[in-house]
Every structure is written in structure tokens, then in C-alpha cells.
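Milestone 3.1: sequence recovery, worked example.
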């Protein structure tokens, strides 16, 4: 969990406006995509926190934190459980209407979670895609608010990019990030996604991918930067599982 995360004003406003906060995290990196700063603010403001462990189709969480719900927006897993948790809080607090703010790092699947719950949102693997205030109803009594991704301060490019939280076109050292990812992604997942020859050495693996995708620079040199960006993008889009 990153303590360096800071809340921008928009996210603070979302917390203030809502009764319940859904913190959407990536099952492939639960601790890395949780924000301690956000969770502290939710607590301070006396709001309810539910952690949505999204992308469970790509990784099986080893340990489920308190107040967390395993979920997959893609497979629509966990929607019933999440709705019933929201209703439980409404009953307990005697609320007949509830506002639910959906918050989390970029690309954890906030917009996709809203869509899976039957709301309207625009999903995109471009980090920072969600702009403006976007309310949507998922029942007569439940209003959801989408939000832009949390932008943590003090986390380096590599750390953030590995979490899928950076716009891929803005990453400077894409190869460095791809190599970090290749250390995490099991070889069988790479073989499954790309039918590529597996290598133990991540640098060799990246070259193999560039070759497989026929990405060359001028001359016959492999374009590992382009291959790295494709890999990062696919990681963000949820093409690569770690189970
Ligand atoms: N495999 C998989 N991919 C997902 C899931 N949820 C979202 N994605 C993908 O992750 C990317 C980011 O999703 P989006 O909802 O736009 O994230 P946001 O930035 O948090 O709003 C998109 O390419 C989605 O298709 C999921 O449960 N499983
Ligand atoms: Mg979004």
C-alpha cells in the first residue's frame, strides 16, 4: 500500500459527497493498488469503505482484506454480493437512498465495475480517461459516482507503471517497466496470450516478443521499446493473468 498517495481535490470531494466509498483494486496487485491515504480519509470523514478486488479472473487473491469483495467486472463475478453489502449498510444506517463513490488507481476497472453493476460509464485502458462528474443510477435507491484515478505523489514511474496506472504513451522507460512486468507474469500466461517461446531472462523474453510481433527499428534491429509498450498496454487491458 502506498503511503505517498495524496488525495487530489476531486477525490476528496467524491468522499465528501458520498455515503459509501468503493475502493477498486487490481487482484494482481492488491497491496500496490490500495491507497492508505484514501482509506484514512474515508475513515476520518466517517464514511463506509468497501474494497472491490477487481480482475479476479486474472489472479486469485491469496488473502482477502477486511471489507473486501472479490469481483470481476469482465465475468460479472461478485455483483450480487456487492449490491447486498451496499444494502446491508443502507439498512443499518436507515438510509432510503445512498450515494456510492467509486475510487481507485487508474485502470483498476472503476468504470468497468460500474458497468457490471448496471450503471453507465465509459471504460478505457487509457489512464486518466474518466473526466468530469459522472453520476449513474443502478437502482431506484443507489446512485454511483465514477471518479478519475488517484494520482499518488512520490511513487516513481516504474512503480506506478507496473500497477498499470500510467498512460502508456507517457512512460519514458517502457523497456524497464516491461522487464519488471515480465518478472511477475508467469511464463505459461505469456505462452497462452501470445504463443511466444518462453525465456527465463526477461530481456531475452522482450526481444523474443518484439520478434514475434515483427517490430523492427530502421535496419533489422528489434524494436523492444514498441514491444514493451504493447506488453504494458495488454497488462492494463487485462490480457495477462498471473494465475
Ligand atoms: N480481465 C479483466 N479486465 C478488466 C476487468 N475490469 C476492467 N478491465 C479492463 O481494464 C481496463 C481499465 O478499465 P476501466 O474500467 O476503464 O478502468 P478505470 O480507469 O479504473 O475506470 C480496460 O481495458 C478494461 O477492459 C476485469 O474484471 N477483468
Ligand atoms: Mg474510468
Amino acid at each position: 500500500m502506498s503511503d505517498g498517495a495524496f488525495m487530489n481535490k476531486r477525490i476528496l470531494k467524491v468522499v465528501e459527497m458520498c455515503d459509501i466509498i468503493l475502493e477498486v483494486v487490481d487482484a494482481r496487485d492488491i497491496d500496490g493498488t490500495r491507497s492508505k491515504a484514501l482509506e484514512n480519509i474515508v475513515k476520518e470523514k466517517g464514511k463506509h469503505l468497501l474494497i472491490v478486488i477487481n480482475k479476479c479472473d486474472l489472479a486469485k487473491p491469496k488473502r482477502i482484506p477486511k471489507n473486501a469483495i472479490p469481483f470481476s467486472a469482465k465475468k460479472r463475478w461478485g455483483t450480487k454480493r456487492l449490491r447486498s453489502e451496499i444494502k446491508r449498510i443502507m439498512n443499518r444506517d436507515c438510509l432510503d437512498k445512498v450515494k456510492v463513490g467509486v475510487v481507485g488507481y487508474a485502470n483498476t476497472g472503476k468504470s468497468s465495475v460500474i458497468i457490471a453493476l448496471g450503471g453507465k460509464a465509459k471504460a478505457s485502458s487509457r489512464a486518466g480517461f474518466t473526466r468530469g462528474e459522472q453520476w449513474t443510477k443502478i437502482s431506484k435507491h443507489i446512485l454511483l459516482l465514477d471518479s478519475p484515478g488517484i494520482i499518488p505523489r512520490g511513487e516513481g514511474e516504474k512503480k506506478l507503471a507496473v500497477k498499470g496506472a500510467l498512460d502508456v504513451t507517457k512512460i519514458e522507460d517502457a523497456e524497464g517497466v516491461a522487464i519488471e512486468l515480465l518478472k511477475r507474469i508467469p511464463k505459461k500466461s505469456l505462452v497462452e496470450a501470445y504463443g511466444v517461446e518462453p525465456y527465463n531472462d526477461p530481456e531475452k523474453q522482450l526481444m523474443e516478443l518484439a520478434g514475434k510481433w515483427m517490430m523492427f527499428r530502421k535496419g533489422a534491429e528489434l524494436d523492444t521499446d514498441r514491444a514493451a509498450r504493447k506488453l504494458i498496454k495488454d497488462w492494463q487491458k487485462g490480457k495477462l493473468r498471473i494465475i
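The pocket of guanosine-5'-diphosphate (ligand 1) is lined by residues 54-55, 57-58, 72-74, 104, 106-112, 123-125, 129-130, 149, 236-238 (CB under 6 Å). Residues 167-237 form one domain.
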